[in-house]
Write a structure and sequence with these properties.
The chain is of the alpha/beta class and 281 residues long. Helix content is 37%, strand content 20%. The strands form 2 sheets. It has a 9-stranded mixed sheet with strand order 2-3-4-7-5-8-9-10-11, with helices on both faces. Strands 1-6 form a two-stranded parallel ribbon.
Length: 281
């Protein structure tokens, strides 16, 4: 004979475990998988200039008051400023080669570290890194007096979702998505298939859903992606381009993986970015 009370008790226990292990509840568990920061002094902080452009050390306040850190490289020949939101690992010092290429494309570059990365205080979280991007944007507008129509949001990998989230809240001239995924839920399921048992409402907010953003009205966007990317499959870039609306440009990079675009496809990368910047001038 079935013990009904025991069945109900077991089902309740399973329900508790199911909820407790959901991405929205077990944020510390999934956060440890998602964020891989290198704190100062890890990295190359000795860089004084790139391509002859002097590094300006920038410290600014985050939305929650935590001190954030960034580097600003001003190109006096242009009014365009690229706001660089990087991926989930390392810190800003690991993006030197990408910064070098972007400077040659005819733009100034402001790269910053999320909370808990490099010299930025605090600890990273999904909501936090989006707030950090907002604080970096507001610093450019309020302190550096850069007009919104001169700002291009650049998102690398995880930063692609951050850049789209920022673009939904702040005006900009254009967006560059490099090695970006369709949505955090999609890439999460691909990396950890068991999380497919959870509906979207049990995933953390913000969703970092680049595809949903691109399916609505948005500024011009350039999608750059290595066809050998084993971290974020190239199919993500294809879907973003094919299903996105509005002004969009696609630059597949056949010889590049996830993090070696500058080394493997520097010329094609620079050509695509330069053409994009000229289109939104």
């Amino acid at each position: 004979m079935v013990n009904l009370e025991m069945v109900i008790s077991n089902l309740a226990a399973l329900g508790v475990v199911y909820a407790a292990l959901s991405p929205r509840i077990a944020t510390h568990l999934y956060g440890a998988m998602l964020f891989h920061p290198d704190k100062h002094p890890l990295g190359n902080y000795q860089i004084e200039q790139i391509n002859g452009f002097e590094r300006q050390e920038i410290f600014f306040a985050g939305v929650n008051g935590k001190q954030l850190h960034g580097w600003l490289f001003k190109n006096p020949a242009t009014s365009k400023v690229i706001l660089f939101s990087h991926g989930n690992a390392g810190n800003l010092t690991y993006r030197v080669e990408l910064i070098r290429l972007l400077l040659t494309c005819g733009a100034s570059v402001f790269v910053y570290d999320y909370q808990g990365y490099g010299m930025s205080k605090g600890n990273p979280s999904l909501k936090g890194i989006c707030h950090d991007a907002q604080a970096a944007y507001d610093y450019l507008v309020n302190e550096q007096k850069v007009p919104a129509h001169s700002i291009i949001l650049y998102g690398e990998s995880l930063g692609g979702g951050v850049a789209c989230e920022l673009a939904s809240r702040r005006p900009c001239a254009g967006i560059i998505l490099q090695s970006a995924f369709v949505s955090l839920r999609r890439i999460g399921i691909e990396a950890l298939p068991f999380v497919c048992i959870y509906p979207s409402w049990l995933f953390p907010k913000p969703e970092l859903n680049a595809l949903a953003f691109l399916q609505n009205e948005h500024p011009p966007v350039l999608i750059l992606h290595g066809q050998r990317d084993e971290v974020v499959p190239f199919a993500h870039a294809q879907e973003l381009y094919e299903q996105g609306n509005g002004a969009k440009y696609f630059a597949p990079l056949p010889n590049a993986g996830h993090s070696d675009l500058a080394e493997m496809e520097g010329e094609a990368y620079a050509k695509a970015v330069s053409a994009f910047l000229s289109r939104i001038s």
